[in-house]
Amino acid sequence: MDSHLSPGERSELVLKQLTLDEKLALVHGNGMSGESQWKMPLTPFTNGGAGYTQGVERLGIPPLIISDAGYGVRASGANGRYSTAMPSNLGAASSWDPESACQFGEVIGGELRAQGFDVTLGGGVNLTREPRNGRTFEYAGEDPLLAGTVVGNVMKCEQEQHVIGDIKHYAVNDQETGRFVVNSVISKRAMQESDLLAFHIAISIANPGAVMCSYNRINGDFACENSYTLQDVLKKDWGFKGFVISDWGGTHSTEKASSAGLDQEQPMADYFGLKLKEAVDAGRVPLSEIDDHARRVLYAEFLAGIVDDPPHKGVVNIEKGLEVAQRIEEKSIVLLKNNQAVLPIIPSKVHSIAIIGGHADVGMISGGGSAQVDPPGGNAIMPLGKGGTHWQDHVWFPTSPLQALRAKLPNTTIEFNPGTNLHSAASLAKTADVAIVFAYQWESEGMDLPNLSLPDSQDALIEQIAAANPHTIVVLETGTAVTMPWLDKVAGVVEVWYAGSAGHKALANILLGDVNPSGKLAMTFPKGEADLPRPLIAPLPPNDEGQGHFAVNSETRVSSYAVHYDEGPEVGYKWYEAQHTQPLFPFGFGLSYASYAYSGLSVDSSAKTVRFTLKNTGKRAGTEIAEVYATLPKEADESFKRLVGWKRVTLAPGESQDVTVAIDPQVLQTFDESKDTWMLTHGEYGVLVGPSSGNTPLRASLRIH
Asked: What is the rounded distance in angstroms from the CA atom of residue 142 to the CA atom of residue 148?
């Protein structure tokens, strides 16, 4: 209990005191609240959360009390509690702001502790290889540097609240179709330069106590028994000292998983309970392996501070959560189109507004599955008093854009139409100075989107409103990219993502110009599915049970279902550039109510720094995200640029600033499979600077000898 010792020294001291049974108790779960198939004698101790792992009371080692917490603590309402919903993770990533990411994590970590939890299951950093993936909203976009930086800062600051941090789903878990069985086939070089790089950056920033291995297989082996990703890369190459926790039901073996580097089975003890003890007693699993698993769990407990400062239930600071959620959403909203300065709305010029569709009279939609945060008072579009939410309910938070706009515009006539009758909606739009159409696209774990179109005939609604009123603005509440067949017909498009507990207030501030939009897309919006590396997500073969837990066991038969990531490291904007395909909106794109000019690029090759001048040429103060990309020397044989750095710069009207961005050499390297190592190619690198991946007006070169 000497807190002056390092987590490693302390875990070693505890390990020497443990019996075999105590060590084994640390390496498996004890069931999950509310799931009938996942019940054990200790399940009631889960605190209404996702899982429970016994501690060692006689030595002061607390139990692990685990909760899902993607963008807020899950199931709070069902447990008679409250939690703040942050903007979706993809939205927060679109702020490109490590400081906001830290505040995101601080709020969630504090609320986990106040509810009695000491392990978070947030930290999703899977890249957007497949934009139809139902969990895209839980992740941080398509670029490894941006995603790793954002998620690393979320989890670093969450863990600083004395909650064991988690980075997931490791790895190449990039679609939900067949998620329990799909074999992700990808070369080592491609995996290292894309998905694994995102994980490495996130882990190096966060130093999390836990990494969750994913459901899928990777080149044939399940991720939770994959010795290449778990032992060779995570533990040996990266030096990860925490524990590998399985996704829920993602364990498929005892000896193979233990030897490959899985440290803790969740949520049950099917493989790491009696079977593991029998394997140790029979000499099939060496005691040194058990020691390593237990040591890593103990290390994470000391690292996160839960031994010295276990959680104490208390009252959540609701005001702080709402304030942070609003601030982050204001930075996350992306202005995609603003013809003839239709935005911001100027009250002296706009006397009537038609609000149409999207249940905007009562709320804003959120993302489903294990990330779902319960809205206070229940679902805003269900009868009052119906508490709790189910796995895949479409849940609207009680964050009414209509009410928020009316509060800010008391002298403006603002009327609502649900948009269910095209004729009446168009009639209202025709009478208003401005029409704002709210469109949504719901997403959830456990399913992929059939396509990137807006559901429920919303495209037709937008077409009708745009035809009735030339000053039509579309507000998109989505978890991923959407196609926009009506784009040329509307005046404005605002992407608000899943906007969180204060999304309505943040949106009103953006629409009225009280906040100048600064968000930029963390993922590319393609024109259509035909432009994706895989125009269709392959369906599961007949009779394949790929969507059911424990459907396929490695000791019986293995599904033939596979996805081949032949595009390799060409994820997102890299793919479109390599294919010479123009997207609808490029990665890194976002408009402002100000305008910015870039000039005077210079590069210091020895220091690997880039310097340029940024000027606000508009009439409003604003924040520009200046992006720096690099192209590799010809010898690297790579036909796309890579994001290598960025800077958020706030400027008054007419103000100029010299901006310096340091390039991390890691993101210039390529992975050499034959030598199993990273290489920095010598030669001339191109350096490109500008407001988005599709617009880089400044060019220079960087020489590496």
From this structure: 10
